Amino acid sequence: MEFVSQLDISFFLLASLGAAVGIFFGAIPGMTATMAVAVCLPLTYALDINHGLALLLGLYVGGISGGMVPAVLLNIPGTPSSITTTFDGYPMAQNGEGERALKIGIVSSIFGGLVSAVILFFFAPVLADLSIRFSYVEKFLIIFLALTVIAALSRNLLIGIFSGLLGVWFSLIGAYSISDGGNGHTRLMFDFLDPWLHEGFALLPVLIGLFGIVTILSEAAKGVRNDLSGASVNFGKGQRFSFSQLRGQLTNLTRSSVIGTFVGILPGVGGSAASVLAYTQEKNFSRDASQLGKGAPQGVVASESSNNALTGGALIPLLSLGIPGDSTTAVLIGAFTLQGIQVGPLFIGDNTDTWHLMMVALVTANFIMFAVMFLAIRHIARIVMVPKHILYPIIVMMCVAGAYAINYGIMFDVWTLLIIGVLGFLMTRIGLETAPFVIGFILGPNAEVYFVKTIESYGNLTVFFTKSSIAVLLWILIALSVFFSVYLHVKNRRKQHADAA
Amino acid sequence: MSQVTNGGWLMSNGLYSLFDISVDFDQSHLFFPRLVSWALVIVFLLILITRARPILQALTDRSRGVIFDRHTDRFRFAGTMVLLVSYFIAMQALGQLWPYTGYGFLFGSMVFILLLSLLYLHERTRRNLSVIGLNAVIAPLMAWLILAGLFNITLP
């Protein structure tokens, strides 16, 4: 219980500040929780790991929850994870029940957040204990599985794989680090770039570029229109919210929270997948599904509890295997690296205090999110109207400050923002996917070390199949995820043909 | 000797040696990148084969364009790019005038935020313009005070 001594007032203040700023980011369409964490990273440089994480976890929880505000009031999801909230939230707002829909969403959010925190607390150490025994072979296969799963859940399997491999390729630019047992020679670059690229692209500028600058460039290409100028936020005077209205929703709440947590565990798969899955399940299992999509509170419950449950879920593979569960946790890896802490199987055992403090921060952030949103929802609703021509320039400025300061003042890191920003913009335009790219980029260097070192010591490829029963199990999972993706693809194509006919 | 036990049954078939592979340490930095590069080429070809029709359509349909289409706001996009590049260059140049103060960031950001806001503005009312002017001064000042002043973070 030593961690209790580190709980000071600033810890709670930072978690609260994070939740409040996160809600702000989430509530503005086009700005996501990932962006909130990326943009606010420079603020953590001066903090220690525990206080830094309190701020970042607050941002994460607030950012995911804030997305429901424009989803309900304006039919525009503030973050991709609140897409399904629009299905029922907006019809409710049109019936004059905007405030009720939001409050139902807020209660569902805290429920999902707390359920996933409990699962995280009990499951992550078990997974970490298991993975401590993994050799390089299993570690490589876990990364391979992570990339396969994320590619399998992309819109198109091949494009998902291509995006992931491109991320790995990018991460290999620069020297094969001697500290990892490499020979120190550079590759995939021209020699004259050596002064800048010897260490390759730094992780955080790449992430900030992908989640900050790409958004700005995409919005600029769309003309930075304030689509909301004609819209007005209307709370209406319909039925009021009371907790008794959530009676009978316990099954839905629990099921959606568990689904959200599980989807969170899958590497790189974000909140939109979680909420869509939970919503579909509510549709399948609900006694009265006919009202779904027309303003049924249970739709909001399913969507909001699952997307907030993602937060705890996504932290599970991060803290036990070192593999981020979604793009926001990918940026969190950056925060750990910054503090010189390696996330992976040893993290929880070696940093027990930090692990416990993270749990406290996560739970605190959920309660603060609940309090802020529940009491001030009418004021928060106005955030959606903040003009983009004011916000976007500030975002760029914060991205630049963050990138520059990461390695104590390297201008090339700022140029990386632009290089990756343009690259990411082109990638999204030609249909490649960002999430697999990010996961590939983060895991690429480890994948190389595990793969090459295994071959150097065994000298034969069959070891990847014969090393242990866990290796075999991992291969089965890899095969299943490919099979699942092909099955979904064929099913969708048949459906399209049937619809066309 | 673990490889012998692991691959014992394969060895008896003479197949085990088929999967033998060795990495020359001097060249080990190229081993994995080559593998990934080849995988990229193969997946790229597979995409070309399986999605030949939509790709051809996208490339030949001039009204759509691959990167930019009819609806693209070319002025604002190009303006953003020009401003970003000038911002980065100016920030570094100004920073060298007053090293270790963060003034390059502060003054560079003020001009950049002003210009980018003006670029993105659609309705030029007096109110909008004054808000933009105020924001261009206050936002960088706040960021500079908090980051450089309070937290001692290195800025250009």
Overview of the molecule:
The complex is a heterodimer of chains A (501) and B (156). By secondary structure, chain A is mostly helical. Chain A has one domain. Chain A is built from 21 helices and two strands. Chain A has a two-stranded antiparallel ribbon. The longest helix of chain A has 35 residues. Chain A is globular, with a radius of gyration of 22 Å. In chain B, helix 5 runs antiparallel to helix 6. In chain B, 24% of the residues are buried. The N terminus of chain B is likely disordered.
Essential attributes:
heterodimer; A: 501 residues; mainly alpha; 21 helices; 2 strands; 71% helix; 1% strand; globular; B: 156 residues; 70% helix; 0% strand; disordered N terminus
Topology:
The complex is a heterodimer of chains A (501) and B (156).
Chain A: H1 9-27, H2 33-40, H3 49-66, H4 68-74, H5 83-94, H6 98-132, H7 136-152, H8 157-171, E1 174-175, E2 186-187, H9 194-197, H10 203-222, H11 250-265, H12 271-285, H13 297-321, H14 327-338, H15 347-350, H16 352-380, H17 388-406, H18 411-429, H19 434-458, H20 463-466, H21 469-500
Antiparallel strand pairs in A: 1-2
Helix pairs in contact in A: 1-2, 1-3, 1-16, 2-3, 2-10, 2-14, 3-13, 3-14, 3-16, 4-5, 4-6, 5-6, 5-13, 6-11, 6-13, 6-16, 7-8, 7-19, 7-21, 8-19, 10-14, 10-17, 10-18, 11-12, 11-13, 12-13, 17-18
Chain B: H1 2-6, H2 8-12, H3 28-50, H4 52-60, H5 74-97, H6 103-120, H7 126-150
